[in-house]
Amino acid sequence: MRVQFVLQEIWIGLRRNMTMTISLVITVAIAMALFGTGMLLREQVRASKSYWYDKIEVSIFLCAKTSSNPSCQKQDVTDQQRQALQSQLKGMSQVSGVQYESKQQAYARFKDRFSGSPGFVESTREGDIPDSFRVKLKNPEEYKAVAQAVLGRPGVDTVINEQEILKRFFRILNGLQVAALMIALIQVVAAVMLVGNTVRLSAFNRRRETGIMRLVGASNTYIQMPFILEGAIAGLIGGMFASILLVFSKTLLIDRLAGDVQLVSQLGWSTVVAVMIVSICFGVLLCALSSFLTLRRYLRI
């Protein structure tokens, strides 16, 4: 097979159908960028789950004068109630560790966590956040047993399971992932249709050349190869543009999410590079396969 001839035919095809080729490249770039963003979100959720689920704690907030729980009777928890609750928690088989956090420690942690929102911090005074016990469980799924054992005890205001908060948050991230993949699927369908139209138009424009090549004994592979490579090159260029978009997606969406929401762990660039490679390969295979299937149907050779 003459490589020079094949390359010449590829250039002729791309030049004749320049507008459709540009449209195909843009469509593939958007589709692969959305596909890659969905994969990045999936990896972000997976990394965050494995990181945070090992650190899940049950927060047992104690009664304070500001508590809305009627059983607290607008009174602070007594030292006797606090010590009795701590002894009970340490004796439970589901508990692996108990840490007491005073009002002063809770307020200091609150100021550190929301240091970027000075107005919010200034509106909260020391003592507004009650003291609490932070309970580390051997198995996070055994939260209900611990909650039922302490709820209603003297001095206990509320019990919060951090796992439920994380589940709701990760459900939102999973929804974003599904939305990105659904839009990417629509774009993939549009890309396949564009590939088919581009290849059919290119085959129609060069029907005389392909007829001559068939008469002189050229093989089917030799005739089809320029058309398939045209689609593959368009997919490659689109995948490369998608990689650039994925960099922006990582820095503007994933990293900002990790910075603004402290529940999310940082996603490494190695994962992003791997997703880029997958997106480029998928774009090339998608366009090449679509070209091949279109040729089998519309190019009778």
From TrEMBL:
Instruction: Please name the GO terms of the biological process aspect recorded for this protein, alphabetically.
Output: cell division
Which stretches make up the ABC3 transporter permease C-terminal domain? 182-300
Q: Topology with regard to the membrane? A: Multi-pass membrane protein
Q: Which Gene3D superfamilies match?
A: 3.30.70.3040
The keyword Cell division is assigned to this record: yes
Q: Which residues form the FtsX extracellular domain?
A: 56-159
Membrane spanning segments where?
21-41, 176-199, 227-248, 268-295
Subcellular localization: Cell membrane
- What keywords appear on the UniProt entry? Cell cycle, Cell division, Cell membrane, Membrane, Transmembrane, Transmembrane helix
Q: What is its main location?
A: membrane
Q: Which GO terms describe its cellular component?
A: plasma membrane
Job of this protein: Part of the ABC transporter FtsEX involved in cellular division.
Q: Which family does it belong to?
A: Belongs to the ABC-4 integral membrane protein family. FtsX subfamily.
Q: How does it assemble?
A: Forms a membrane-associated complex with FtsE.
What name appears for this protein in its UniProt entry?
A: Cell division protein FtsX
